[in-house]
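tool=predict chain=A
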Amino acid sequence: MEDQLTDDEKKLLLKLARQAIESSVGGTEVVALDLTKMPKRLQEKGATFVTLTIHGGLRGCIGALEAYLPLAEDVREHAIAAASQDYRFPAVRPDELTKIKIEISRLTTPVDVEYSDAADLLNRLRPGIDGVILQDGAHRATFLPQVWEKLPDASVFLSYLCNKMGASENLWRWKKIRVRTYQVEEFHE
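tool=predict ok
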């Protein structure tokens, strides 16, 4: 990914995410940001996913595929959502806050993958590099590039992603669906 964030910008985003989660879980108001006091890059629109883990296990993950908020606001919004709105988990409890680790994935703009058939699609994906978005009509799902660590086989990766989308795991094999890829700049506490 070009245009990497500085270490200070990454630390600030992690701090903002942590503060937003702690305020939200603690039931206190999340203080509005004064974007004019933020580094310029954090004022620009950006798309992120915020992943929460406890002892290496997933505890919540929410994000956006398209940039629509300033990067600093996007991180805060998705940090709160990961802690309270991921349908796979109950809301984070106050006693879990010290155990939670935060990971932020800053996304590039997704690009369409042009492919002729299932075999061609497999050849165009870059395991460990590409995040993948599958879309069939109104149904859509994504896996961040980090998911390749658990699902290194591209055909298995796509099958699980079809399941996540609510479709047959073999949909990608027999129907040409919309496929987009993106890359991330990932950093964590």
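The two ends are 20 Å apart (CA to CA). The mean pLDDT is 96.
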